[in-house]
Specification:
heterodimer; A: 914 residues; mainly alpha; 5 domains; two-stranded antiparallel ribbon; 38 helices; 71% helix; 2% strand; rod-shaped; B: 78 residues; cytoskeleton (chain A); GCP_N (chain A)
Chain lengths: 914, 78
């Protein structure tokens, strides 16, 4: 076996030598050729024999494969070759034929190394992988080869490109050459030769470089990492000091290389720093990732440089750098793209100063959306994925939990710190605010609005409505990961969340908090919708309220209120509604009577006060006070009217000879006033309140209603009531004061009429008494009327008349006394005064009504114009058009909206006092 | 055994084909590595190694021979 084996070895070796050793060449004698053959044969045998004794490294197929793979990766920029090798290798493993795959691979590797890198490399790597003892045998040869290769630049270049060609008589390699050169032509041989050619003159002239290029190369990795080194120290934070001894071309190369170094330095400073919010930190981490990949590049570069430096030969010009294939120029090329990236990042960092959150995202997004360079675009997109992560986390917490997780105020919603916890209104309206500047440009305004509303609603459901259970289950079921670049999913989930949350909020309002029934109750009680209740309340309170304000007691008021509720249809309201109804007094001021200070109140608590805000409550109170006053006047006028009607058949008829004319005009005027009040009341209750109520109902029932719609609808409702209800807000003209004046006039007229009525009654009594006396006297046989009787007692001075009568009885003397004279004068005065007063009140009333009608006729609102028409349906009044200047003055005085809001409290105070 | 007799040649055939395939693969690898060995030389080398020659030594021998050739070629060119 052994013999056959050695035979086979011999045979194979011979055939191999035949192929390797060139045949006899022309101009060469046979002996010499034979000699050559002999030499080669001997040499081969020699080497192989020595190899026999040598320790063979551990036979490990994988090890050899790894070596090859590494080599391929090292020498080629793209991993394509390595993968090709990987495929071949696995196929090889599957082949059963070979017994020593490792050895073969190892052999190929060795041979290949020579071809690629020349001898020095081989010696070096051999020492690394095979062991020290093998070196001794080859030391000489290595050196001798070194000598041969030391022939100069020409040899360098020639050997690299020329030798393989000489050794390659056959074509099969070509097929693979194509394969090899296709992937990255710039990085492999052509690049090298390109490098070598232009550099050769430089090399010659700069042979004595100080420091040499090799030293610069050695330091370059450190410089690229922003570390100072011997030849390239950093002078300070922002500058790199170049050795002054270098020639200009090299300096310009170093300039180019200094850029990434300096940029890296500043960027790594930025990454180390810690100020800024979450988005800022995300930016930092994203940049950190980019820097790490930059460092990876630097590490590869360093590997290349080290490898190149290791095979440098001191004897060659320029240290053989051209051969090693790594030069400063090459480094510039390799770091080009990274430099671009660094430059871009540093630009972002510069402009990101002082910005945070949404602004920052907008900034980076502007790079990706509006920059023409696809490199910049993709770079910014890559950064955005990282940078937006905290933003999307916030967004998620906001739209699924209604929580604001934003420790650095970076979200476009911020919690209003100032709002004092004064009820739900502020929770809804003021707790969270919108910050326009913080909306990142990755989402639209409308979108952001929706997001804001969702979060606010969720927060409100949780804290305002106490329904955190639902919020939690909702967040569990609906929550999903949000991330950048998936706008479709995002908007879909936002829409979904919006619908769900709004529907939930509305149903909570309607069902749990009975919004509708409360609004209804407000309308029934405060806007006098419930007629029977109001009438009953007024009747039972009337006598009470006529007394001065300081003699009103709350318990009597509440008792009367209770009475009114029990005896009207209001008793069928739900107890929850009735519980909220309360009667109370406004703060007193001197000289007021009960009517002025009485008010009904309907308490609305959280969370409904989001809709029925304190402002709305005030409006309700205002309207109630106004309506209550009208109602009171109406009540008073009707009472008087009733008395007149009943009296007309009795008492008044008896005195018609004296006061008939007065009563006739009085009745006419009273009817006029009652008509006025009726029209006014009808208008407010039916044209204004009911119409507004209808509008409100319609708005609430809208399918896409949100809480905001409800609030707006309710506000509009109240506004239209106050505006159309002649309660201010009517622009230039102050209807409220006019109406108050008119109502005051009516009350005064009614009082005067009451006095006239008492006068009439007194007159009637006097006549009765007189006739009774006459009768008794006639019966007694005396004169029916005596002188004394002519001194008629004034009906309004009963004391004096009583006194007279007493005197009559006591003295019966016909002494003309002062008092009766006074009495007659007083009585006449009284009547005159009354007449005068009635007259002046009537005139005043008519004048004011004319003015009011004049104002109404020029209102823009149709309903208000119709009120004027209804009041003056038969053209009794002659509406006065206001003088222009006066109107102009008034226009100037209250500047519309702002004016009306500031005036509201005043108006209320006036009401209180009036 | 007819089956054995029929399988014998096919087995030989298989073996040859496998050997050819192996050489193909090795050749691909060798050209990846720029060894500049042609197919024939490669197969000689493979057989040498299969027969227990130290691969390191063989590689050295080949390189040595090439270097000599080169020197000769250079000297001739001069």
């Amino acid at each position: 076996m052994a013999s056959t084996k050695s035979e086979r070895v011999e045979n194979a070796l011979q055939s191999l030598l035949e192929r390797l050793v060139p045949a006899q060449q022309s101009g060469e004698d046979e002996d010499r050729a034979d000699q050559r053959w002999e030499d080669a044969n001997n040499l081969a045998h020699d080497i192989l024999d020595r190899g026999e004794d040598e320790a063979v490294p551990v036979e490990d197929v994988n090890h050899a494969a790894d070596l090859i793979k590494r080599k391929l990766l090292r020498e080629n920029a793209s991993p394509e070759k390595a993968t090709t090798f990987g495929n071949l290798y696995s196929r090889l493993l599957a082949q059963p034929v070979l017994g020593k795959k490792w050895a073969i691979l190892y052999f190929l590797l060795r041979v290949g190394e020579e071809e690629m890198d020349g001898m020095p490399q081989m010696a070096q790597s051999r020492a690394g992988s095979i062991g020290v003892e093998s070196r001794g045998g080859y030391g000489e040869e290595v050196e001798s080869e070194g000598r041969y290769e030391g022939n100069g630049v020409f040899d360098d270049a020639f050997a690299r490109n020329g030798l393989p060609r000489m050794n390659e008589p056959e074509s099969p390699r070509k097929a693979f050459t194509r394969d090899r050169e296709r992937p990255v032509p710039a990085r492999s041989r052509p690049q090298q030769s390109e490098d070598a050619a232009p550099e050769s003159p430089v090399k010659k002239s700069t042979d004595g470089l100080e420091p040499p290029e090799s030293a610069l190369l050695r330091d370059l990795p450190f410089t690229l990492q922003g570390l100072s080194s011997n030849s390239l120290p950093f002078a300070d934070k922002r500058s790199l000091k170049l050795p002054p001894t270098l020639p200009v071309p090299l300096v310009s190369l170093l300039h180019t290389l200094a850029e990434p170094s300096l940029l890296y330095r500043s960027l790594s400073d930025f990454v180390e720093s810690s100020e800024g919010g979450l988005v800022g930190q995300a930016l930092r981490s994203a940049i950190g990732i980019e820097l790490r990949s930059y460092l990876g590049l630097v590490a590869t570069l360093e590997g290349q440089i080290r490898r190149a430096l290791a095979q440098l030969d001191e004897n060659q010009p320029n240290g053989g750098l051209g051969k090693a294939g790594v030069t400063l120029k090459r480094c510039v090329v390799w770091t080009r793209e990274a430099t671009l990236g660094l430059r871009l990042m540093s630009m972002m960092v510069e402009s990101a100063k002082g910005k945070k959150g949404g602004e920052l995202i907008s900034l980076i997004h502007s790079f990706s959306s509006s920059h023409g360079d696809p490199f910049v675009h993709s770079f910014a997109e890559r950064l955005l994925v990282h940078v937006t992560r905290p933003f999307y986390n916030m967004l998620r917490a906001w739209i699924y939990d209604g929580e604001l997780e934003d420790p650095y105020q970076e979200f476009f919603v911020f919690e209003n710190q100032d709002h004092e916890d004064s009820g739900a209104t502020s929770v809804w309206e003021h707790k969270y605010r919108f910050k326009e500047a913080m909306i990142p440009s990755i989402m639209t305004q409308d979108f952001a609005n929706r997001v804001f509303l969702i979060g606010k609603s969720l927060n409100f459901i949780r804290y305002g409505c106490g329904d955190s259970g639902w919020v939690e289950s909702y967040s569990k079921s609906a929550s999903r990961e949000l991330k950048y670049g998936d706008m479709a999913t995002l908007s879909l989930s936002i829409d979904e969340a919006y619908k769900t949350v709004m529907a939930r909020l509305l149903s909570l309002m309607e069902n749990k908090f009975a919004l509708h029934s409360h609004l209804q109750a407000l309308k029934n009680f405060l806007l006098l919708g419930q007629g029977d209740f109001i009438a009953l309340l007024m009747e039972s309170l009337a006598s009470n309220l006529d007394r001065p304000a300081n003699s009103q007691y709350r318990h009597t008021l509440t008792a009367q209120l209770e009475h009114a509720i029990r005896n009207s249809n209001a008793q069928y309201e739900s107890p929850d509604v009735l519980r909220r109804l309360d009667a109370r007094m406004l703060e007193l001021s001197h000289g007021e009577i009960g009517w002025d200070v009485f008010t009904l109140e309907y308490r609305v608590d959280s969370p409904l006060d989001v809709i029925v805000t304190p402002w709305a409550n005030k409006q309700y109170l205002k309207v109630f006070n106004f309506l209550w006053r009208i109602k009171r006047v109406e009540f008073a006028l009707s009472t008087t009217w009733r008395r007149l009607q009943t009296g007309a058949r009795g008492v008044l008829a008896a005195v018609s000879d004296k006061l008939g004319e007065d009563w006739k005009t009085a009745r006419g005027r009273l009817a006029e006033m009652i008509h006025f009040i009726d029209q006014l009341q009808y208008y407010i209750l039916f044209e204004v309140i009911e119409a507004g109520w209808n509008g409100l109902q319609k708005d609430i029932r809208k399918p896409d209603a949100t809480l905001d719609t409800l609030i707006t609808a309710h506000t509009t409702y109240l506004r239209s009531i106050t505006r159309k209800g002649l309660l201010g807000g009517g622009g230039a003209l102050d209807f409220t004061t006019q109406l108050h004046e008119l109502l005051k006039l009516m009350l005064g007229y009614k009082d005067a009429l009451d006095s006239l009525y008492s006068y009439s009654v007194a007159e009637f009594t006097r006549r009765q008494e007189l006739s009774a006396k006459i009768e008794t006297r006639t019966k007694a046989g005396k004169w029916g009327i005596t002188e004394a009787d002519e001194d008629v007692q004034s009906p309004l001075f009963p004391t004096s008349s009583v006194r007279n009568r007493l005197r009559e009885r006591e003295t019966d003397s016909p002494l003309p006394q002062l008092l009766p004279v006074q009495g007659i004068d007083g009585e006449r005065n009284m009547l005159d005064q009354l007449r005068q007063r009635l007259q002046s009140l009537a005139v005043d009333f008519r004048a004011r009504t004319n003015v009011l009608l004049g104002d109404l006729a020029y209102q823009t609102d149709m309903d208000m114009r119709f009120l004027g028409v209804a009041m003056n349906f038969n053209d009794v009044y002659t509406p006065v058009k206001r003088r222009r200047q006066k109107t102009a003055d008034k226009v100037q005085a209250p500047p519309s909206a702002a004016g009306s809001t500031t005036r509201r409290p005043q108006g209320k105070a006036e009401e209180g006092k009036a | 055994m007819p089956s054995a007799s029929t399988s014998q040649p096919t087995a030989g055939e298989d073996k040859r084909r496998a050997a050819r395939e192996t050489i193909d693969i090795l050749f691909s690898i060798s050209s990846l590595l720029n060894t500049n060995l042609d197919r024939q030389s490669l197969s000689y080398c493979v057989s040498l190694i299969e027969n227990g020659v130290n691969p390191e030594a063989l590689a050295n021998a080949i390189k040595e021979l090439r270097a000599q050739n080169e020197r000769m070629g250079v000297s001739q060119a001069q």
